[in-house]
């Protein structure tokens, strides 16, 4: 409940007003396909979002400098690197991006809290000029796995559906915007299986063995350093006596 309150009150969205899609003529969210790609502890969450457009909507969306905002509520087992997202913004991949919540990248999964990633993507004029009755937005978010607890073969991380908004400047004022929440009622496969990421866990017996070996080498290295220091001090003292 605390996490949902945080999402409702703390996520800024960069907008002045959020309205429900009732009396506003807006695109319809018709398709949402998601999957996780990559190997190891560094993966990418792909989202392909399709909106159905009416012909009269295209010039209006273009004139109002609209953008799509996607809010990903990440589970506690993964995180997004804020610096990596900033780099993507600088490259022009996203128009804006931010991470809210737990941004401590070093915490293991059992000590971390959930976080939220907010992505802004502008709707380019050249995309709207194409003679199609739909708008497709492709989003790729780099993610990293946190260290899972020991004792299990895999830790399964499940991604829920993102919150999607269409935001446009209000007529006559570029500093104020109106955002419309895009419901997923019209998505054909919205009841499909959720996106999963299976993160390998360490084996407890192996961890104990590695800890013992590491401790042994640490003791050996410390002993060598101490003996070397003693030998060096004795040799320095002998040289001084010979010179005197």
TrEMBL record:
Please name the InterPro entries in this protein's record: PIG-X/PBN1 (IPR013233), PIGX (IPR040039)
Q: Which GO terms describe its cellular component?
A: endoplasmic reticulum membrane
Give the highest taxon in the source lineage: Eukaryota
Per the record, the pathway is: Glycolipid biosynthesis; glycosylphosphatidylinositol-anchor biosynthesis
Keywords tagged on the record: Endoplasmic reticulum, Glycoprotein, GPI-anchor biosynthesis, Membrane, Transmembrane, Transmembrane helix
* Membrane topology qualifier: Single-pass membrane protein
Q: Does the keyword Secreted apply?
A: no
Instruction: List residues traversing the bilayer.
Output: 209-233
In which broad location class does this protein mainly occur, judging by the first location in its UniProt entry? endoplasmic reticulum
Q: Name one Pfam family in it.
A: PIG-X
Where does it localize? Endoplasmic reticulum membrane
What biological-process GO terms show up in the record?
GPI anchor biosynthetic process
- Family according to the record: Belongs to the PIGX family.
Protein name, entry field: Phosphatidylinositol-glycan biosynthesis class X protein
């Amino acid at each position: 409940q605390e996490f949902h309150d945080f999402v409702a009150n703390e996520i800024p969205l960069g907008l002045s007003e959020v309205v429900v899609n009732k009396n506003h003529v807006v695109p319809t969210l018709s398709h949402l396909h998601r999957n996780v790609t990559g190997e190891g502890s560094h993966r990418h969450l792909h989202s392909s979002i399709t909106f159905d457009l009416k012909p009269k909507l295209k010039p209006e969306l273009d004139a109002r400098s609209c953008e799509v905002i996607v809010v990903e509520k990440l589970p506690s087992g993964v995180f997004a690197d804020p610096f990596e997202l900033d780099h993507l913004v600088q490259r022009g991949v996203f128009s804006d991006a931010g991470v809210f919540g737990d941004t401590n990248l070093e915490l293991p999964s059992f000590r971390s809290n959930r976080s939220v990633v907010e992505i802004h993507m502008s709707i380019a004029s050249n995309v709207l000029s194409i003679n199609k009755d739909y708008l497709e937005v492709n989003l790729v978010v780099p993610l990293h796995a946190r260290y899972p607890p020991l004792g299990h073969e895999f830790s399964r991380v499940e991604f829920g559906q993102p919150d999607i908004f269409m935001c446009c400047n209000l007529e006559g004022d570029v500093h104020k915007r109106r955002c419309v929440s895009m419901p997923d009622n019209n998505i054909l496969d919205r009841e499909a299986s959720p996106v999963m990421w299976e993160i390998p866990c360490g084996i407890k017996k192996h961890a104990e063995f590695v800890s013992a070996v590491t401790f042994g080498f640490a003791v050996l290295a410390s002993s060598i350093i101490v003996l070397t220091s003693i030998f060096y001090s004795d040799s320095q003292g002998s040289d001084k006596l010979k010179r005197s």
